[in-house]
Fold each of these.
Amino acid sequence: MIIGVPKEIKVLEHRVGLVPSSVREFVAHGHKVIVETNAGAGINFTDDDYKNAGAEIVDTAKEVFDRADMIVKVKEPQPVECEMLRENQILFTYLHLAADAKQAKGLMESGCIAIAYETVTDIYGRLPLLAPMSEVAGRLSVMVGANYLQKHHGGCGRLISGVPGVDSAKVLVIGGGVAGFNSARMAVGLGANVTILERNHDRLRYLDDYFSGKVNVIYSGRDSIEKYGCESDIVIGAVLIPGASAPKLIKRDMLSKMIPNSVMVDIAIDQGGCFETSKATTHKEPVYEVDGIVHYCVANMPGAVPLTSALALNNAVLPYGLQIADMGWVEAVRLNEHLKNGLNVCKGKIVYKPVADSLNLDYSDNISELAA
């Protein structure tokens, strides 16, 4: 199989679909890898690094898309990339289609086979290809929240750790999954007063046991969201419904009750955001203000630390990518039910129900017929 790696073109996105060590693994399995020139330059991987790993370097993204059987990326294809996709070509990347009808339409029109990292599962029902970026985003959320608490960045001017005799910042984390857990760990490490809101009772018990009283672990509901949201300096939205739109847990009318110039960080923005006032931003213009509250809603948060993020992502993605390349997508999803869960669009059809439901599109569950 020919594996293609284009340079990412989303604003200030420096990650890369395959790092040289991953290219070497594909080549060792007998596959050919073509990489767009300077695809890894943003994280200091040169064209020579890729050549030494066995890749062929090409001048344009168009050549990558024209020649490759499978495209491996990081972020969802931009409109110009959707136009370059072709029928039966495999796309393996993050998609986050539930909040992106335009992209879904582009993928359907291309006739490609689009497999989304964020809906691939494992035997425990977890999301192994989303987890590393959730870990990064969770840890970053506290760092950026603390940064924008600074007065000259629009915040209320409170130091997250406090100092002797002065309270530390109150940090509310809504959602106790991978992202929320990592947010809480970072916030505790910086000395904040942390509360986690979670609905799953088993997860509540795990979090309570893990943090051993260092964190307030509270059942999540309308009352608790309003109570703790209104008294927090930083609110981190870390909720996830796999493949579906995020629920809007903080409504606009609540903002007027919150601490003036507090900061809200929406990790769920890739799935539409979990605050009613959220709108996707970029690393170029990461924040905006609504009703006196600072909003940080960058849709590719891990792109701020692209070297760490690309390496962590490649570690998780590589086994699945090799399985697709070695077997072909039809056999791979037939033998691996968890990889099959990653299949979102297939030959013009939406084949992942939460996406179809979120976008009010027709859903097809007849993957065998599409594969034939």
Amino acid sequence: MKRCFLFFLAVFLAATAFADYRETYLRLLDAGKFTELEQHLAAWQRAENEDPEVYIAWFNYHINRKLKTGIAIDARIDTKKPHMIITDPKTGKAVGYLGDKVYYDYDDVRQAIRYLDTGIGFARNRLDMYFGKIHILGAIGEFDRQAEVVIQILELAVKNRHTWLWSQNKPVNDSRQFLLDNIQNYYDFWFERQTKLSMDAILAVSSRQIELLPDDMYAYNILSYYHTIQGHNSEAMNILLKAYSVRKDDYIIIGNIGMLYEELGDKVNARKFYTLMVESKDAELSDWAKGRIKRMQ
């Protein structure tokens, strides 16, 4: 009994020490006391060298200590915040934005990523750490490296069967859908940027996602849309038809096939796929398909 009590006491003390380290780190970070924070993190790392939370803390320290914000004209302004659109007077198309921009110290960002990579080495299934890395790579415009990390977690998802952990090693609920929802956000982010690097990221990630998770229809739609805006309608159609061969009951895929056939002037096949949608039990989808058929007539 005494030994059990001592074991419980040791676990309790370890948990208390972790809480103290983490709470002190959060307090110093929030207060912007980076000199004290650096000393605290060094002590925490000496005490718990293999704890991924230490390396997340180092990551946040390096990201935030020289962070600055200001007004800028840029193509990568966060358009979800107040901003002004700058247009080309000849074409009327948006060529940039005026608004708040975050300025990172690139040497600190590199160091932050190195710490995060070390932490990932101790916790391969910590999805929050991968997301942190993906976010900062996107923030500094390195969309190619960002795409590499997204592909990395897709490959890992197949191996670990979507067994993901979050902050403080808490399991992620409905982790498969949670991962896929966030990857959809990355596609939106890349499409908004409309640069060669961001479009290459869409192509690389969606192609690999289809290979790894062939039953997930979203990636087929993304890859098809990518080819459509590139003017590659035949490739777009091949992707959609491949998706249809996997899932014949996905009405988004069916509707996209019908619209692409209609755009290509193939009214026979367009009507064929719209008719499949008319048979849907979803009244809204059925009415939409009837409208498309009537429009063609």
